[in-house]
Amino acid sequence: MDGTLFVNNVFSNKLYRIPVDASGKPGQPVDIWMDQPVKGPDGMRAVSGKLILAENGSGKISVISVNGDKASVTVIKEGQKTPTAVEPAGDVIWIAERGAGKAVSIPMPK
């Protein structure tokens, strides 16, 4: 993931890879094909070569494994109330639930 910026679009439900050269100049965004749909991808953080993603439209927290221009989506938690942010911290993932007005934590997947 070094030299690459990943961004998502909460409205179009898309994930993009933006290559960054050694001088820090970004290249053209590349649309990443995901093996299952995500709804309202919002907060996203990189950890251990993967992306942790809050899906505010579906109430899910997912792990995204990117391989080139394709990605596999693994749901690790469902039933959240409008999750808008995730933050990995040690062996847990903190989740901001806008709909519930609170933060909760779940174990970091192995």
Secondary structure layout plus pairing:
Blueprint: E1 4-9, E2 14-19, E3 30-34, E4 41-47, E5 50-55, E6 60-67, E7 70-77, E8 83-89, E9 92-97, E10 102-107
Parallel strand pairs: 3-7
Antiparallel strand pairs: 1-2, 2-3, 4-5, 5-6, 6-7, 8-9, 9-10
Offer a few descriptive terms:
110 residues, mainly beta, 3-stranded antiparallel β-sheet, 10 strands
Short structural summary:
By secondary structure, the protein is an all-beta fold. It contains no helices and ten strands.
Question: Could you walk me through the main structural features you see in this protein, from its secondary elements to its overall organization?
Answer:
By secondary structure, the protein is mainly β. It is globular. Helix content is 0%, strand content 59%. The model has no long low-confidence stretch (mean pLDDT 94). The chain is built from no helices and ten strands. The two termini are 19 Å apart. It has strands at residues 4-9, 14-19, 30-34, 41-47, 50-55, 60-67, 70-77, 83-89, 92-97, 102-107. The strands form two sheets. It has a seven-stranded mixed beta sheet with strand order 1-2-3-7-6-5-4, with no helix packed on it. A three-stranded antiparallel beta sheet has the order 8-9-10, with no helix packed on it.
